[in-house]
Amino acid sequence: MNLKGRDYIETQDWALEEIEYLLDLADRLKDDFKNGRPTLYLPHQTIYLLFFDKSTRTRNAFEAGATQLGAHAHFLDSSATQIAHGETARDTGIILGSMGHGIAIRHDLIPGAGNSYMREVAAATDVPVINLQCDIDHPTQTLADLQTIREIFGRNLRGRRIVVSWAFAPSYAKPLSVPQGLITLMPRFGLDVTLVHPPEYKLMPKCMEDARRNAAEAGVKFEVTDDMDAAFEGADIVYPKSWGAYDLMMERLSLDSQKALAENERACLELNAKYRDWICDERRMKLAKREAIYMHCLPADRGNEVTDAVIDGPQSVVFQEAENRLHTAKAIMASVMRERPF
Ligand code: CP
Q1: Which atom belonging to ligand 1 lies closest to the Cα atom of 132?
Q2: Which residues, 6 or more positions from 256, have their beta carbon under 8 angstroms from its beta carbon?
Q3: Whose CA is nearest to atom 1 of ligand 1?
């Protein structure tokens, strides 16, 4: 399968068999890594990692992964570039694309801004653009999640159910991209999906439509509820995490005074506090199947989103999931970056 030059911005842009190819390659690269076999598929190449937000897993998966493929990942903090002085997405794309072989971007904090920024960069260059998390999707995370799920339950996921749940954290506006990425990707691989959140924590309408359509096309269930206990009952996989209140996040975009922003933040925190009991604890884990797994993209807010007993307990697969960020990052880079003759 030739995926050279393809952008990886949303899993929705990729056909099922193309994503399966990435997963199979990630499995092979994991085996090579574990057995010390070299995988120098991208010698002397450069990928630019442009971050508008912080990262531990994503940055290090791509930096280490590039080295292990024989390439170099060049980290760029957007605030230390001329982007901070207003240089456009188009100009940035043309320039970085002319000097390297790939551009990867994290731009996830502003609803309506990150995905469109990446697509502007992608339109300006012929090197592949990889989404390291935007306002809509976190497609390198959900690929690693899927690799992890297949390692545990096998490739045939029909009849299994994942619960994508909101969970409490004392922060006012975490991105929506992880739950949105999960509800759109998982039905395509045969999983029934239950999305559960308090009424104010809805997701973007486009992602809800994609999830419904994907589930209908795959012949699986996509259910939405506001009862966390009921959602957990009989689940195979639980993935509880915090995200921001959609309407308040959208309202925030139109505010320009410090006073109004502070008032919006106060409203977000006040709303959040109503749902302090949305925690993944041992009682809730007992509602799921005995062999159910606990997943989280990390970092987790211990003591709020999840108890230590659950995240450090036998059902947690969070560190396997985090390690798989490396193998899937390598699969994406090795597949889409072009080898250029010297
Ligand atoms: N899960 C995830 O994307 O982690 P980082 O924010 O540390 O990259």
Answers
A1: 3
A2: none
A3: 297
Secondary-structure breakdown of the chain: helix, strand, coil percentages, each rounded to the nearest 5: 50, 15, 40
pLDDT of 342 reads: 44
Measured distance CA(113)–CA(295) in Å, rounded: 28
Terminal-residue alpha carbon distance, the chain: 24
Residue 340 has pLDDT above 80, yes or no: no
Instruction: Please name which of 155, 165, 131, 180 lies closest in space to residue 295, comparing C-alpha atoms.
Output: 165
Return the ∠ at Cα 329 (arms to 327 and 334), rounded to 5°. Answer: 95
Task: Write the pLDDT tens digit of every residue in 50-103.
Answer: 999 999 999 999 999 999 999 999 999 999 999 999 999 999 999 999 999 999
Fold of 11-138+325-337: Rossmann fold (3.40.50)
Three-class DSSP category at 302:
strand
Residue 58 CA, closest ligand 1 atom number: 8
Answer whether CATH 1.10.238.10 is correct for domain 141-321: no
CA distance 195 to 14: 23
